[in-house]
């Protein structure tokens, strides 16, 4: 061994490895040492290194044995190796146990590894060997051998071996049923005897050993779960000693010396519940008594938590683990508990959980226990909802059921009171507290699902009670805000699906409750609140208002619109807090969306407010735009085109007048003004079922007015668009301005009736021709997108000449710009595809289709940006299939593909680009090429065969190009598919072959 390798040199390398800070040097040392470890001499090297005096070298020796065992067959040497490792382990444990412990653990891991790897051929008991070695006893009785372990170190070695063995088996990638049977019949029996010994001698066992034993139990709990999942082994009565030992830990006094033991016991108990809850059944009554019995461990510990702030601060982690245990065990027995709420023992349990839920202090800051209980109470509530039918048979009379429901609601109402107090807002509330409030709101949503309007009514009553208080304290306003917050959350949840049946429910059932709050001067009370509570109170009231569509729409709620809008506009116009102003504008926007007709009387006031906002650059842009949308949508709701037109005209004139005051410093304000016109266009859209929206008479009046357009509103819209997007250098190259202008023009194409924002195709084309000459690169996809919309909506009426002129402007004249930007390539391809899908002749009849567009559409196949590949393959699929083309169109496409550019057929160029892009594409992207291959094969099989053969013979595709014979085989396989789904597999295999990769699916 010494001749083959310099042991001292290896030892020096190891010492240097642990001491060096040079990354390159460490890497070189690791490479060299790993080579030794994996070599044939690794086994001997490991034991030689274990003889070294340096502990790091010793550890590396143990590690070297591990590496060797993992990389070599140990079936011949395992027994000898086991004995050798065991000998070293005993020697290290008798000299400096604590100092050598990290080495000892690695050696024990080697023993475990040896046993696991050779368990099917090994015919020996590893625990017996270990016990014999460390005790020197020749007795074969397990209990005798374990009882003779007088030295605590010996006990620790046994626990470590059992712990590490269980953990190692858990980590195995493949679980062997035979191994699990072997473990159950041998190793596990030692565990049982060991823990029986520990149980009987607990008073004399040190804290160190108890903690290690709990760690060992933890590993075995997980192991048992794994074993039962992967084999037919079942652990039943034979694990009861584990549970008895664990429960005995909960009998001790709760003092600081034992807190670490308690903490491990809590987590271990929870692991049992999570992994193998079945084994707890025989001890259910005992566990309930320990956790919830009068003057037993659980009640004493709970009392300590609830009454001592110092205890909570000192032992927060231990308390968290205890609470997790309680919740997990209650969850395991939740059906039993929820069905027996009149039983005195269950009553005590519920009182205990309520006490823990209502621990004093601010949640997430002073205490975390109540947050842990939120999910429990949700599950508690949901159990009644989910098991409603199953519970019915337990009642012998209607009165029994009524009494049960009354008791259930009494419990849940108390839970709601507890958590209501917990969500009281306070200044400088943290992000965590706000998240906590949201979780409580979800709990209230579950409570509402079960208790219904009674809960909603109780919260409204509490709000009204606080509104009635003459001398309002901080607590009064906190209660008011909390009540409003929960009403907002519950109402929002009710109307999440926007169900019309819910709308009737709201009108009949919820409106009286909400009306009572507004009648108690809710708005004026909030407006008059002290400054330190105003912000949150205003935010919450704004949120409440935003979810009351059913309220403001009906006759009762609409009476409160004046107070509501005064409140909203005061906030918006004062602008003292930008966040609150934005929320207020959003609330106005939502109310207007749902209650347009009820808001018509407010139009004069809204007009004054909006015109001021348009003039004032200091108003938040989002607020200005939302208000514009709201105002115009209400104006449209008058169904009076004259009034509507006048109001649209007034806003347009105001925006036009603001134009003269613009400068570079006001660019954002200028963008907002053009955005307001976009909002006007959007708000002017009529509902899809316009015949239901307007009477026949209104329909005729509407058409007549907007056909005439007496105020020339459409001209004024165009004038503003040109002013903002064409005549100002600052704005003309702003892509947001382009987007907003295109939106203004786009919305009108959705309309069946004429309106203030409906324009002819010719007018829009004329604008786009001018715009593309005065814009930035980012604006071009937006222009392409608008043309796509026009093609989709109006392809039947578009004149080919106009299309040709526009395409010349937005593609041909800026060709060099387009081909230099992949986003423009994509938008151009998408536009061409849409034209080919809707009316192919509009593109095919242009003089530049075959000379420019076709060559342009070949090059993107070489690119690997997925979004471009998707667009270019769709273009070619559409061009080849041409579903809406006539026979002349199809022939034109075929002639083009068979034509030549510089003595090369377009088809060959297409296939060359397609194959090149496909072969060099990443594996995750190859599926995007499949459809085009299949289309070509299905539509043009003979031509494609020749083109592919030509390309494969004249180009080197991939890392391992096909030879002529392989090419023919590939071609034949591909053509046999006739473009069906099987072509995908042929193409995938080809891609793998030329890229020198393996198709692993074949081996699964």
Automatic annotation (TrEMBL):
Protein's UniProt name: Uncharacterized protein
Main location (coarse class): nucleus
Biological process annotations from GO: protein import into nucleus
Family affiliation: Belongs to the importin beta family.
Record localization: Nucleus
Superkingdom: Eukaryota
Lineage: Eukaryota, Fungi, Dikarya, Ascomycota, Saccharomycotina
Gene Ontology cellular component list: cytoplasm; nucleus
Keywords: Nucleus, Transport
């Amino acid at each position: 061994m010494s001749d083959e390798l310099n042991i001292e040199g290896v030892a020096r390398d190891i010492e240097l490895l642990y001491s060096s800070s040079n990354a390159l040097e460490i890497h070189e040392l690791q490479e060299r040492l790993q080579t030794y470890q994996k070599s044939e001499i690794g086994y001997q090297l490991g034991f030689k290194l274990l003889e070294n005096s340096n502990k790091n070298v010793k550890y590396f020796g143990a590690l070297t044995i591990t590496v060797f065992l993992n990389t070599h067959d140990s079936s011949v040497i395992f027994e000898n190796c086991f004995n050798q490792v065991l000998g070293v382990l005993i020697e290290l444990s008798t000299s400096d146990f604590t100092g050598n412990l990290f080495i000892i653990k690695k050696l024990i891991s080697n023993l475990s590894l040896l046993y696991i790897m050779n368990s099917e051929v090994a015919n020996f008991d590893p625990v017996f060997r270990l016990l014999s070695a460390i005790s020197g006893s020749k007795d074969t009785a397990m209990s005798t051998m374990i009882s003779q372990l007088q030295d605590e170190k010996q006990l620790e070695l046994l626990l470590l071996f059992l712990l590490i063995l269980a953990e190692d088996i858990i980590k195995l990638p493949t679980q062997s049923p035979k191994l699990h049977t072997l473990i159950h019949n041998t190793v596990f029996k030692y565990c049982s005897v060991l823990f029986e010994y520990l149980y009987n001698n607990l008073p004399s066992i040190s804290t160190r050993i108890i903690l290690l034993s709990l760690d060992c139990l933890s590993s075995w709990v997980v192991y048992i779960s794994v074993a039962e999942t992967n084999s037919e082994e079942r652990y039943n009565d034979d694990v009861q000693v584990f549970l008895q030992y664990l429960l005995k830990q909960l009998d001790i006094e709760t003092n600081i010396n034992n807190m670490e033991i308690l903490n491990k016991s809590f987590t271990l108990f929870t692991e049992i519940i999570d992994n193998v809850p079945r084994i707890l059944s025989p001890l259910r009554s005992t566990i309930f008594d320990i956790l919830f019995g009068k003057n037993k461990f659980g009640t004493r510990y709970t009392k300590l938590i609830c009454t001592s702030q110092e205890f909570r601060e000192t032992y927060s982690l231990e308390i968290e683990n205890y609470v997790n245990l309680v919740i997990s065990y209650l969850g395991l027995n939740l059906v039993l508990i929820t069905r027996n709420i009149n039983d005195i023992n269950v009553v005590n349990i519920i009182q205990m959980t309520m006490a823990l839920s209502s621990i004093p202090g601010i949640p997430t800051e002073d205490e975390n226990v109540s947050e842990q209980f939120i999910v429990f109470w949700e599950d508690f509530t949901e159990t009644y909802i989910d098991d409603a039918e199953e519970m019915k048979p337990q009642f012998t009379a209607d009165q029994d059921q009524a009494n049960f429901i009354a008791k259930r609601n009494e419990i849940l109402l108390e839970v709601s009171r507890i958590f209501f107090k917990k969500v009281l807002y306070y200044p400088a509330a943290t992000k965590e507290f706000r998240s906590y409030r949201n979780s409580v709101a979800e709990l209230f949503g579950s409570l509402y699902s079960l208790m219904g309007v009674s809960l909603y009514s109780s919260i409204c009553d509490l709000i009204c009670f606080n509104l009635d208080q003459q001398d309002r304290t901080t607590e009064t306003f906190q209660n008011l805000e909390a009540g409003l917050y929960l009403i907002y959350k519950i109402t929002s949840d009710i109307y999440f699906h926007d169900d019309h049946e819910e709308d009737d429910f709201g009108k009949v059932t919820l409106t009286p409750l909400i009306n009572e709050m507004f009648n108690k001067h809710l708005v004026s009370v909030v407006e008059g609140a002290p400054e330190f509570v105003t912000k949150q109170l205003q935010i919450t009231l704004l949120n409440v208002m935003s979810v009351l569509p059913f309220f403001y729409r009906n006759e009762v709620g609409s009476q409160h619109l004046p107070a509501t809008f005064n409140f909203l506009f005061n906030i918006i116009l004062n602008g003292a807090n930008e966040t609150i102003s934005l929320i207020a504008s959003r609330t106005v926007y939502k109310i207007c969306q749902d209650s347009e007709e009820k808001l018509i009387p407010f139009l004069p006031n809204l007009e004054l407010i909006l015109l001021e906002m348009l003039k004032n650059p200091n108003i938040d842009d989002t607020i200005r735009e939302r208000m514009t949308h709201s105002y115009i949508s209400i104006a449209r709701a008058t169904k009076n085109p004259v009034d509507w037109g006048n109001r649209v005209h007034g806003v347009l004139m105001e925006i036009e007048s603001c134009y003269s005051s613009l400068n570079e410093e006001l660019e954002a304000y200028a963008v907002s003004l053009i955005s307001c016109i976009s909002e006007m266009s959007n708000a002017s859209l009529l509902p899809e079922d316009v015949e239901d929206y307007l009477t026949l008479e209104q329909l005729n009046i509407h058409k007549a007015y907007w056909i005439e357009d007496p105020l020339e509103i459409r001209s004024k819209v165009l004038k503003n668009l040109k002013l903002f997007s064409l005549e100002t250098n600052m704005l003309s190259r702003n892509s947001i301005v382009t987007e907003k202008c295109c939106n203004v023009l786009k919305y009108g194409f959705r309309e069946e009736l004429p309106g203030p924002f409906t324009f002819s195709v010719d007018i829009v084309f004329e604008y786009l021709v001018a715009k593309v000459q005065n814009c930035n690169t980012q604006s071009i996809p937006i222009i392409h997108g608008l043309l796509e919309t026009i093609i989709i909506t109006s392809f039947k009426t578009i004149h080919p000449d106009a299309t040709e002129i526009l395409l010349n402007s937005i593609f041909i004249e800026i060709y060099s710009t387009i081909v230099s930007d992949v986003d423009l390539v994509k938008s151009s391809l998408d536009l061409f595809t849409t034209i080919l899908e809707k009316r192919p002749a509009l593109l095919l009849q242009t003089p530049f289709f075959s000379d420019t567009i076709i060559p342009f559409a070949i090059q993107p196949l070489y690119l690997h940006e997925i979004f471009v590949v998707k667009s270019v393959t769709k273009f070619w699929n559409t061009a080849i299939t041409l579903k809406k083309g006539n026979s002349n169109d199809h022939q034109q496409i075929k002639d083009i593909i068979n034509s030549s550019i510089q003595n090369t057929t377009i088809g060959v160029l297409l296939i060359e680009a397609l194959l090149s892009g496909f072969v060099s594409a990443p594996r995750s992207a190859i599926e995007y090429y499949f459809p085009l291959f299949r289309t070509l094969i299905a539509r043009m099989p003979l031509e494609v065969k020749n083109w592919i053969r030509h390309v494969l013979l004249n180009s080197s595709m991939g890392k391992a190009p096909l030879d002529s014979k392989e090419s023919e085989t590939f071609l034949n396989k591909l053509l046999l598919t006739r473009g069906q789904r099987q072509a995908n597999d042929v193409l995938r295999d080809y891609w793998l072959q030329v890229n020198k990769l393996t198709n692993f699916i074949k081996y699964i």
